[in-house]
Design a protein that fits this description.
Helices cover 73% and strands 0% of the residues. It is built from 13 helices and no strands. The longest helix has 34 residues. InterPro entries: MetI-like, MetI-like_sf, ModB_ABC, NifC_ABC_porter, Sulph_transpt2.
């Protein structure tokens, strides 16, 4: 009597359990289907007219300008913070790091309120600025500060992780060859973490571009002054949700181009490094 061998269970070439693909598909659908819904429901007949309207153009221009400025501020302040957090590990640094990363989980409206009570006319800093004739709240400057507040942690956490991974070996070699701390940072550390730095810049820019809660609380919603694209979309959606779709699709397209472009560049850099 011959025994029949049990049928072999299909296996994935990568060794992953097959059930992981089911949950991954659900996750992909959750992210991909909503933008597709915007495409399907968009009023294409008046798309160009709505996107090129003065209010939409002003809001989009303001968003791009302020998001770019806030990204520059994130670079100036975030890179030094990330390097310091990666190279020091004491109780004070850990507490400070937690506070810096707080906007990652803090509701944006709460962040905007905190900024208002810091830089507003009655704020702990703003009242002194007001006495000097400087008002920040409800101005374009407030938009930049609000965006920087919520975007800065994204750059810090991206760069800090990369600096920790590369270690200090190459920096120590540079120091033995006579390179000073500043030269080592510019010529050794930053080039080593360039892909992660670029990813952090993209995350910071995208977060700043989509910022809403802190902006409307701290900067208001004045057309041409503080009304960014997300605020313009929100105002349009109140009266007519379909009227908000065209500008929403523009933001989706900008975000997609930025993310795909940076991802492609990182793949090319990785491939060049392997070859």
């Amino acid at each position: 009597m011959t025994m029949r061998r049990p049928g072999r269970v299909p296996r994935d070439p990568t060794g992953l359990p097959l059930w992981t693909y089911s949950f991954a598909a659900l996750g992909v659908a959750l992210i991909v289907v909503p933008p597709l819904a915007l495409l399907l429901r968009s009023p294409w007949g008046g798309f160009i007219e709505q996107v090129t309207s003065p209010s939409s153009v002003d809001a989009l221009r303001l968003s791009l300008i302020t998001a770019s400025l806030s990204t520059v501020l994130c670079l100036i302040m975030g890179v030094p913070m990330a390097v310091i957090f990666a190279r020091h590990d004491g109780p004070f640094v850990r507490v400070l790091r937690s506070l810096v990363l707080l906007p990652l989980v803090l509701p944006p409206v709460v962040g905007g309120l905190a900024l208002l009570y810091t830089f507003g006319r009655l704020g702990i800093v703003g009242e002194h600025l007001h006495d000097a004739g400087i008002d920040i709240a409800f101005t374009t400057t407030a938009v930049v500060l609000a965006q920087t507040f919520v975007a800065l942690p994204f750059l810090v956490i991206s760069v800090e992780g990369a600096v920790r991974v590369v270690g200090t070996r190459y920096e120590e070699v540079a120091a033995t060859l006579g390179a000073g701390p500043t030269r080592t940072l510019w010529r050794v550390t930053l080039p080593l973490v360039a892909p992660s730095l670029l990813a952090g810049v993209v995350l910071a820019f995208a977060r700043a571009l989509g910022e809403f809660g802190a902006t409307i609380t701290f900067a208001g919603n004045a057309p041409g002054v503080t009304q960014t694209a997300p605020l313009a979309i929100y105002v349009s959606a109140i009266d007519d949700p379909q009227a908000a779709i065209p500008l929403s699709l523009v933001l989706v397209a900008i975000s997609l181009v930025v993310v795909v472009g940076v991802h492609s560049r990182r793949r090319r850099r990785t491939g060049a490094g392997v070859l």
